[in-house]
Amino acid sequence: MATDVAELEQETKEGFIRGLGLLDSTMIVAGSMIGSGIFIVSADIARQVGSPGWLMVVWLITGFLTIGAALSYGELAAMMPKAGGMYVYLKEAYAPFWGFLYGWTHFLVIGTATIAAVAVAFARFSGILFPSISETNYLIEPVRIGSSNYALSLSTAQLVGIVMIVFLTWLNTRGLKLGKLVQNTFTFAKTGSLIALIVLGIIVGLISYPEIAAANFSDLWTIRGSIQNVGDGLTAATTFGLFVALCVAQTNSLFSADAWHNVTFTAGEVKNPKRNLPLSLLLGTGGVIALYLLANIAYLVTLRFEDIQKVASDRVGSATADVIFPGFGAALMAVAIMISTFGCNNGLILAGPRAYYAMAKDGLFFQAVGRLNKFHVPAWGIVVQGIWSAFYVLPRTVSTKADGTVAYGNLYGDLLTYVISSALIFYILAIAAVFVLRVKRPDAERPYKAFGYPIVPALYCVGAAVILAVLFIYQTTATWPGLVIVLTGVPVYFIWRNMSGKPVSDKL
């Protein structure tokens, strides 16, 4: 009891309110993880690995890595239960420089570009219900930026995405209570929708289309259908090519399971954080990974594997819903994904600014971001994040198709592809921090110790490092630019450090 009072008084002085219970924290974990990815990326994974069995193996690898990371990461969260999450852990284990590089990359791309991507996904699925919302229905036609392969535009879909970001940004500046209410409501709703898709998909598939399940599960491992090149001419048709494909496919599945650690950004607002943070990480990641595995089983009992590989726009979830509810399954799935993406973005917008707050308190970000408003939240951090995220909705990539027509993509999509591999570097460093801090701070209080230490955290580091090495060797055009993005933080760090005048260690 005395400990709880002391913690409450300490946080009252800082201004944060410990208003997140175990349920709220778990909803942030699960809600930030479940977006639109689980309903889409299995099609691309199926083309990469070429068989139902290997599709499931990809998701199992993602599950082992994500849950293993959460079980290890919980030690850091319980040991340092204050706002900032990974920024704080990397700073304490290595040096402020490493914490800043993560925080900078999270602000520059990882967090903000993801918010933009989720917002536009929300708009795209809104377009199924309201056809006027489209990325080709322009309010401002694409304007080419010089002779570059980039343009700026404003379509009705982009406008809806920006309005979503602005609304959720405003809402989260009004206090934690409102933000967590939205998070809990939408996470319950989208989890229920995903469970309904799984249960109905499995029942309808097994009863009405038993031949599909038989075709997929009676021959799990034979490579079939359209398989794609995963680098240097390799495909899943060869043993080594299959190994590379399993690693490359993790860029899809791991990204769909990403943001599991975002709750630790809000550690300064979690009740009894020494217990609730590690527990919410386990419950949230474990529950979501179980749902992801079951969702893929539902896909495989309702759709032939070859159909999963070539489903229109990769919308596997919508195709499954159409099997369950012929004629209007796509509309139902659109509503489910709109709910899912709305809740996902609320979690991302709520959590990220707490990392920028911690950076600003150390003199390594805009000074105003290190202050809380009257609602006890880092409002300026939320606003700056919202502005940058909304900006990402506007730029388009420009390419020319084989028939000479011009195609427009989204800049944030390329940036996220580039930094997925770089994000893995930070995750490896964070889990390795469990070992580093056991040496540097052996006497520190550890209310929770990493499950399976040292085997589980070591296995995560080794597994993630293997995937990272394969990506840098065989997906060079999509990985090396990510390092450049991360390294832009090097001069920014020294500029901010010198401007702040605060004593920050130079040890790298």
Let me know the average pLDDT. Answer: 90
Just give the CATH class.
Answer: Mainly Alpha
Category from helices, strands and their pairing: mainly alpha
Task: Specify the CATH architecture.
Answer: Up-down Bundle
Note down, in words, how this protein is organized:
- The protein has about 500 residues and is mostly helical.
- The chain has one domain (about 1-500): Amino acid/polyamine transporter I.
- The protein is built from 20 helices and four strands.
- It has helices spanning about 1-15, 20-35, 40-50, 50-80, 85-95, 95-130, 155-170, 175-210, 210-215, 240-250, 250-255, 275-300, 305-310, 315-325, 330-360, 380-390, 410-440, 455-475, 475-485, 490-500, and strands at about 140-145, 150-155, 395-400, 405-410.
- A four-stranded antiparallel sheet has the order 1-2-3-4.
- Helix 6 (about 95-130) packs across helix 16 (about 380-390), helix 8 crosses helix 14 and helix 17 (about 410-440) packs across helix 19.
- The longest helix has about 35 residues, at about 95-130.
- The radius of gyration is 22 Å and the shape is globular.
- Mean pLDDT is about 90; it is low at about 1-10.
Brief characterization of the structure:
With 508 residues, this protein is mostly helical. The chain contains 20 helices and four strands. The protein has a four-stranded antiparallel sheet.
Distinctive features:
508 residues, mainly alpha, disordered N terminus
Provide the fold topology.
Layout: H1 2-14, H2 22-33, H3 42-49, H4 52-79, H5 86-93, H6 96-129, E1 138-144, E2 150-155, H7 156-172, H8 176-208, H9 210-217, H10 239-248, H11 250-256, H12 273-302, H13 305-310, H14 316-324, H15 329-361, H16 379-392, E3 395-400, E4 406-410, H17 411-440, H18 455-474, H19 476-487, H20 489-500
Antiparallel strand pairs: 1-2, 2-3, 3-4
